[in-house]
Amino acid sequence: MAHLFNRNVLLGVSGGIAAYKSAELVRALQDRGAQVRVIMTHGAQEFITPLTLQALSGNPVHTELLDERAELGMGHIELARWADLLLVAPATADLISRLSAGRADDLLSTVALATAAPLMLAPAMNQQMWRDQATVDNVKTLADRGVHLVGPAAGQQACGDVGPGRMEAPAAIADAAAALFATGELAGKRVIITAGPTREALDPVRYISNNSSGKMGYALAQAAVDAGATTTLVSGPVNLTAPDHTRVVSVLSAEDMLEQCLKLLPECDIFIACAAVADYRPAAVQGQKIKKGPQEMTLQLVRTPDIVATVAAAEQRPYTVGFAAETNDVLAYAREKMQRKGLDMIIANDVADPTIGFNSDENAVTVLRRDNEQALARASKNTIARQIVHLIARDV
Ligand code: C5P
User: Fold this and answer.
1) Residue 315 C-alpha to ligand 1 middle, in angstroms?
2) What is the per-residue pLDDT across 40-55, written as a single tens digit (0 to 9) for each?
3) Pair 249, 235: CB distance under 8 Å
4) Ligand 1 cavity residues, CB under 6 Å
5) Domains 8-179 and 190-395 in one fold
6) Domain boundaries in the chain?
7) Catalytic pick among 159, 261, 268, 274
8) What class, spelled out in words, does domain 190-395 have in CATH?
9) Three-state SS at 223
10) Which entry of 46, 161, 212, 331 is 20 to 30 Å from 193 by CA?
11) For the chain, percent helix, then strand, then coil, each to nearest 5?
């Protein structure tokens, strides 16, 4: 069954009688593994209190666009970036109309415009309102823009009518949300992802390493699994749990990482080098702990092998993707690196901004291919990973 582990679901609740079912929906999303935050419109609060959804979601409920306190904490832009999915349930006729017009006159509609995450709507309204040509046109506009719809179901309505317009059952909505991430785009493909830092030993207790958290590589592994790929992480030491259905090959040094990657290469269609591989290692590893001595000491370092360049130069080369973390002239350096290392795609990352990249949960990147480039707006690493996997799937 599809799941929502590691997914941030932002649940928007608008003002219809079906809002009472949102409480059950929060639970259904959590049961499938999601982290849930809730935005309520003013109308929604006439039907169910924020306190109920706060207690269930375990997070404060967001209701106001222009609220100094909210903007100090998680304001509308932070919410938009946090979300891996914006799910609106119930989506009333009014909300659907405002979304189709691109309005930004309350928190929910504003976040819908501001997020790079997919949008899914579970409409709920009287059957005649659902059938009205205005609603039909609005729904078509949204569907043409790539908005996902779940329901509505048909049957007895709260107003006594019978027909289409009942909000789909919470379990079915949560399943549809989970299925959204299971794209199958890489079904049958074998993906290897390097992730995390490497450790280059100096002696039995000391090493040279870096601050890479591995989050981007692990998010890519999740996206690859969701896309149906057989996924292997070749991972340096990190504090993360690998996604289900991922094979993890744990390594320490750059040389270990290269050795394992080359071993796996005959069974690889797509190679994604996300690891922050140390560029240098100590020329010699001391067998015993190095003793304190004079005021100064000199370490001799030698270059480590370039893993992604080695893979890209292999005879039976997979589709090869690298990353370029730069602080200046980001795109020019990335393009040069793509050519020099013989890559099919490079993900350029501006690391001058400390709030994205390395240890952060968010990222903003530009995806370069030989003949084009595409900027991916700042979003959670999960959303960025999904978009990268989608772009790779179009090429392979
Ligand atoms: O040369 P630079 O380290 O900037 O290149 C970054 C890209 O190359 C990343 O994709 C990284 O995983 C990969 N790389 C590698 N082996 C190295 C150094 C970098 O695979 N020794």
Assistant:
1) 20
2) 999 999 999 999 999 9
3) yes
4) 194, 254, 273-275, 277, 304, 306-308, 322-324, 337
5) yes
6) 8-179, 190-395
7) 159
8) alpha beta
9) helix
10) 331
11) 35, 25, 40
